[in-house]
Amino acid sequence: MQNLIIKGGKRLSGAVSIHGAKNSVLPLICSTVLLTGKSVLHNCPELTDVYAALNILESLGLGWSMNGADIEIISKYPESAEIPESLMLKMRSSVMFLGAILSRTGHAVISAPGGCRLGPRPIDIHLSALKKMGANVRENGGKLIFDASGGLDGAEIVLDFPSVGATENIIMAGALANGTTTVYNAAREPEIKDLTDFLIKCGADISGGGTDTVVIRGVRRLTGAEHTVIPDRIEAATYMAAAAITGGSVTVKNVIPGHFTAVSEIFREAGCEVSFLDGDVIITAPERLNAVKSVKTRVYPGFPTDAGPVLLSALSVACGTSVISESIFENRFGFTDELSRFGARIKVFGRVAVIDGVSELSAAPCNCTDLRGGAALIIAALKANGESRIGNLCHVMRGYQDLANNLRTLGADIIEL
Ligand code: EPZ
Predict the structure, then answer these.
(1) 111 in ligand 1 pocket by Cβ < 6 Å?
(2) What is the dihedral of CA 49, 55, 57, 58, to 10 degrees?
(3) Residue 39 φ/ψ, nearest 5 degrees
(4) Whose CA is closest to atom 26 on ligand 1?
(5) What does the alpha-carbon distance between residue 294 and residue 305 come to, in Å, rounded to a whole number?
(6) Domain 24-228 CATH (choose: 3.40.50.150, 3.90.1150.10, 3.30.1330.40, 3.65.10.10)
(7) What is the pLDDT of residues 219-274, one digit of tens each?
(8) Residue nearest to atom 30 of ligand 1 (CA)
(9) Cis (ω within 30 of 0) for the bond into 301?
(10) What is the pLDDT of residues 109-120, one digit of tens each?
């Protein structure tokens, strides 16, 4: 499937179930390099990024199989410590294998990580932390070669920025290190605690997962375990935006309410009713949304950067002018040129988007440029009068399972080509 044809104007209604979180299952897969024996991960989403991570596992000599939403992984000492460049380039999060490979083998070779075009995605925070843990790093022919003969050593690490990936890498690096590693100013995203919960089941000695200070006491050996991946809070926010822009009423099932307080608050400010009932969130939108004067994306528990694009699409038809300020990525609004094809009136000044709400959007052909920007174009097409074609869906398939089917279940007129 490379294109969607969406006939907009349908008010969405009904219920949709959320899959496991992409940004949790990826580090969980990386962490199995630390283990010996069988692990089973339940509630895994079927995404191209997940297959990319499993292919990297396979290149290291670990075995895996998938049965619906269950992934079984057979961990052993890796046959290689190098991630093939072709696999590295498939997704940015492949850098998260670094800590686990280095901690397990004392060696690692990676190339510059790939991923979507959100701006320069450096790994300086990762590198600085691993050097503090005793790793030697050198560059050769576009590859980074890491050595920690004798294993990594525990260290006190203060992150300049609460990087999600760096926090996860350090946790995995510390799990088998000699001594204790303490991470200050750690990222607090729920996916971090999902990782530490799993590693503790595997025998790791970790406290503070999900808080700004994580303490990891290295152990000698970790074994496989069974774990259920937390639901995807960004997928949930995406369906909320679909309900909001179409003036619909949708029940988003299998969520953890505490994971998107900030998201719910913004949709309420835009005029939606948002309520929680037994692990579901119910959103009912007005005929037309109110503008939201100022939204700032922040690290958790603030409004998540990944939900910014779909919110921006919803606000493009609000009554009034909204402003979204992005604090995490340089090029988060790269998709707005494509969004303007629908008649949306967006002005972007660096990391600030000013959205002058219009009463109507018109169908247009457009192409996805990144994962969340692509989701935002689909959200806009649900509202646009006429038939829109959305291309380059490969970006969206990295992070959303069954998006078209689920939107069709909610009443959208969508054809996959
Ligand atoms: C994770 O990316 C998520 N990806 C992203 O989701 C998410 O947007 C991001 O966290 C923020 O919440 C996964 O979990 C797989 P960061 P990550 O390290 O780890 C800068 C999606 O759409 N930085 O917290 O890459 C970096 O340039 C994806 O699902 C450094 O400067 O995010 C960025 O500006 C997109 N040096 C900011 O920090 C570093 O060494 C946030 O990066 C590392 C990061």
Answers:
(1) no
(2) 170
(3) -120, 150
(4) 121
(5) 14
(6) 3.65.10.10
(7) 999 999 999 999 999 999 999 999 999 999 999 999 999 998 999 999 999 999 99
(8) 122
(9) yes
(10) 998 665 556 666
